[in-house]
Design goal:
Layout lengths: L2 E4 L2 E4 L6 H9 L2 H9 L6 H14 L4 E4 L7 H4 L6 E5 L2 H10 L5 E3 L13 E6 L9 H13 L1 E9 L23 H32 L10
Parallel strand pairs: 3-4, 3-6, 4-5, 6-7
Antiparallel strand pairs: 1-2
Helix pairs in contact: 2-5
Length: 224
């Protein structure tokens, strides 16, 4: 029976891949931890806007920071509260976060099972960097149930996820993704793929138009 090495995991032919296991392996690699250790501040303006919008409503409340990685969000969320707990399911990331943020409560854990926390423990549950996309569809439902269980009445859940219906922040429809290869190769590939890509291009134009009409909102600063 064939066995394949995938991101440091051994996977037997015909075996159903566990996306969470694969992602844990990737995020535990030395180069991945080093990359996350260099990240600082908000990942994009959308994250800044989302956190600023809920900041006045959760200031001083207990905060649970899921998928903390090497600690990029630690200083951002500790502006809001002294009752802060961070969780990541990669032991290597937890170690890096401890090293970079001494004295912070950082634990190894899994968003699909937050049983170490009692019901209604937190006023804000924060899950950044599209971390919820790192598990299967069924496990996302489990994760959401756990996030809501540990949330106190009137609390807030903030999480990011990839949007299949629209472009990334700041992307415009007429500027596609940068791809390798010569200009001739890219042109031929574009022509061959056009019939399959038309629905995606239509969504990009539609969502760009909607976003343009909506304009850009202005949000207050996090620090009160």
């Amino acid at each position: 029976m064939a066995i394949f090495g995938l991101f440091g995991c051994e996977v037997m032919a015909g075996e159903v891949l566990d996306i969470a296991v694969l992602n844990r392996a990737v995020w535990s690699r030395e180069e991945t931890v080093a990359h996350f250790s260099r990240l600082a501040g908000f990942i994009d303006p959308g994250e800044r806007a989302a956190l600023a919008a809920v900041a006045p409503r959760v200031r001083g409340a207990p905060v649970l920071d899921l998928g903390v990685g090497a600690g990029r969000t630690v200083p951002l969320l500790r502006l809001l509260t002294d009752d802060y707990v961070a969780v990541d399911y990669s032991p290597a990331m937890v170690s890096a976060c401890h090293r970079l943020n001494p004295g912070v409560d950082v634990r190894a854990g899994d968003v699909r099972d937050l049983s170490e926390f009692q019901d209604g423990r937190f006023g804000l549950v924060f899950f950044s960097f599209s971390g919820i996309d790192a598990v299967s569809h069924a496990d996302r439902a489990r994760a959401l149930r756990e996030m809501l269980r540990v949330l106190r009445p009137g609390g807030w859940v903030v999480f990011s996820t990839h949007n299949l219906e629209g472009p990334s922040y700041g992307e415009v429809p007429w500027r596609g993704y940068r791809r390798g290869g010569s200009r001739l190769y890219r042109t031929v590939r574009w022509i061959l793929r056009l019939p399959f890509d038309l629905p995606r291009h239509a969504r990009r134009w539609r969502n760009w138009w909607r976003r343009s009409k909506a304009g850009t909102a202005r949000w207050p600063a996090l620090r009160g």
